[in-house]
Write a structure and sequence with these properties.
3 domains, homotrimer, flat, UDP N-Acetylglucosamine Acyltransferase, domain 1, 9-stranded parallel sheet
Chain lengths: 327, 327, 327
């Protein structure tokens, strides 16, 4: 694969300092880039790597222009990381091999499903009755979209994704669990990406809703009747329990959890491994995980933790005693 | 979809106050229900929503009869939530579209597997040699049931479920791991529901066993030789390590974990995000996760936590010192 | 299935005390083994079970020879657990039913993929363009190996595994996320085992790398550009974020996590449910999870934990005060 430097700038904009005829043969991080590679500097704290880089050309912000020009060829762009994202897309299109069939013959698409003519349904996918797949959406291999679920436009569903399995709903009948049939579906907006083996359950009565621009990593569980707001991103292995409402522009770290029937405001960041146990009404950064220690220290501290409220009482008693002693 | 109110009561019992000719067109929660919808009040603390609801009819407990009748039509039933579960089942049967073939032609069922004539095997499922699928059991799409594994009657296995992959067993040979072939299988009882992409491993020597009535949510991992007792329910993303024995009528919260080779008594409830590290011999509610805080507070508290056992020693020293001071 | 005791020793070595003509009909743990079963004692602390066992023959270490002979037949081997692993393999081979076709007709293997003639591709697998599958490697059912990903020799990939889905990479464009195309692939060494529904993402620019002998349990997430060193083993539900480097001969407990862009030295053991938040440069055992308590105790201690840094300040104040009092 080869892309002329000049072609990149013609397509994506930015100001090029250097030879437009240079053939770019790879995209690479600063420290690994050779003279035929294009790299980028998105964070000024790595400027030392810039000086040392052997990259054929580097994408930099306007503030770094002089420094970058002193080193060699560069493209100046307002947001170098975003510019780099666009370059990866150009690269991907350029190296694209001929596409397979629109609906792979091994996929099982119900005649009662609606698949936009521009959508791609990969091998061994299942699209059930009443499901709708929007324009330019891609189902990679082995994706299930269950009855009546709706996927918007320009979405990507990675292998093993399950949309619209039954939500987890049962009523107690003595010791037995009686199934509550899950009569809702799943509605997914536009520009949503869903990682491998992630599951989004159908609603009990109403639908589970994933709004436009949401990005979900692999092995995530979204319970029934959850709503995930616009542009919210979740890292791998997150679990969201039923009927939780998550705002727009949130980030949820890997293996975090959200309990059911609560709300999270727009703009909330939840750290990895943290469990949201109450509604969060204000944007902000929330955390709750036990810090890592060497095991021997952990054993001592964790054992003491079990007496923490007693320690507080002892401290309170001491405070009182000392006060009285001083009288 | 329409169901006459009278038909519902004829099929499910309960005492109807109101017009049996009313056509129910939807099932809905109290606050969203319109005049053609049937709703329910299972928890008296929501009685204010009852008064305000526009539902055509509401299912209530005997204690709420007068209050409900003052509002409008109602069905009185001993356990309104269970009654509602039965209504969802009636609804689901009534709206059922014609079923597909008993064994979908895209499924790969080994001639040496036994599938009950009333079972349904969905698209792109795999049922291996020696596996047995009981009466009225449904494998949705893309389920694997491996060699010699047995699934009981009236079970539901959601898309992506893997029954009987090898348990995780290796012996150290210097630095290498030598595989211990997993010679057992998986036995699953009747009325078990297993969520999307959940995995239950085959036993090393004996079988992994899931008893009658167990309900497992999505993305759960059950290790080899585990036994899960009757009617126990687990929420999404739980991990159970090998050879753990979990009693009957337990609930395990989302993303919780159970270490291997331990026992949990009947009737234990484990909170979400909590790790069971020792046998629990008494029924009860057990918890162990770090509470959520705003990140700045967490940073201070988590840093202090690493000195907790030292703090205890300092407290002890102070107590001693004060005692001596007072002498 | 029957294996002569003499045949086992002829094939696997070890010193047999007892009748080589004994027909072994089962492998079983000491406490469950009957007179036709072969068992093993790997840990001397279970020697009491040895005396009580009804096993037809027991595999023991040299140090246990006399004790074992006093009981009955035994095989003496340097590492009884490893010897037992070899017996399970012998057993598995002996009971093997005739293999299916090399590439199951329901699998979708791109003509541009390279599959070694000795590899087995199970039902409903997907092997994309440019992928390579090494000698004697087995893809069980419903495995996806994406474009250009390379799997070594003698690997086992269990059902539902996804190799080479896109890494989770996006650049912010205002509130929107712009996709960074994932241009790398996944390279997996020899003798790697990968559990059911586990996902390993393709790299952004370079490849994600899993070295020889690595063993991954079920439902694990490995992010883009991660490197996992030789013979490292991870239990179920672990999440490893992008660009983490994990050394050789590590063990990572179930549901543990590793944040991105950090390094873990060779020989590190991470406990279950623990999150690695910084590089670990020394081998050792690291832990960080909240210990389990009965829920009422947890509520008191967890509430106090939120004031822990304040408690420390109060303690410090007391220490100072007492010192002054004593002057």
């Amino acid at each position: 694969m080869v892309l002329r430097l000049g072609t990149i700038v013609e397509q994506l904009g930015g100001e090029l300092f250097g030879n437009p005829e240079l053939d770019i043969q790879a995209l690479a991080p600063l420290e690994a880039a050779g003279p035929q590679a294009l790299s980028f500097l998105s964070n000024p704290k790595y400027r030392q790597q810039l000086a040392a880089s052997k990259a054929g050309c580097v994408i930099v912000a306007p503030a770094m222009r002089d420094e970058a020009r002193a080193r060699g060829a560069c493209i100046v762009a307002d947001n170098p990381y975003l510019y780099f994202a666009h370059v990866t897309q150009l690269w991907q299109r350029a190296r694209q091999r001929p596409a397979g069939p629109r609906i792979h013959p091994s996929a099982v698409v119900d005649p009662g499903a609606q698949v936009d003519p521009s959508a791609l349904i990969g091998p061994l996918c299942v699209v059930e009755r009443g499901a709708r797949i929007g324009a330019h959406t891609v189902l990679k291999s082995r994706v299930t979209v269950s009855e009546d679920c709706v996927i918007g436009e320009r979405c990507v569903l990675h292998p093993g994704v399950v949309i619209g399995a039954d939500g987890f709903g049962f009523a107690k009948d003595g010791e037995r669990w009686e199934k509550i049939e899950q009569l809702g579906a799943v509605r997914i907006g536009n520009d949503v990406e869903i990682g491998a083996n992630t599951c989004i359950d159908r609603g009990a009565l109403n639908d589970t809703v994933i709004e436009d621009g949401v990005k979900l990593d692999n092995l995530i569980q979204i319970g029934h009747n959850v709503r995930v707001g616009r542009n919210t991103a979740m890292a791998g292995c997150v679990g969201v329990a039923g009927s939780a409402t998550i705002g727009a522009n949130c980030t949820i770290g890997g293996s975090a959890g959200v309990l059911g029937h609560l709300s999270i405001a727009d703009g909330v960041n939840v750290s990895s491994f943290s469990l949201v146990t109450r509604s969060l009404n204000k944007p902000g950064h929330y955390t709750g995980f036990y810090p890592l220690e060497d095991n021997a220290s952990w054993e001592k501290n964790a054992a003491t933790l079990k007496q923490l409220s007693t320690l507080r009482e002892r401290l309170r008693a001491l405070e009182k005693e000392l006060k009285e002693t001083k009288k």
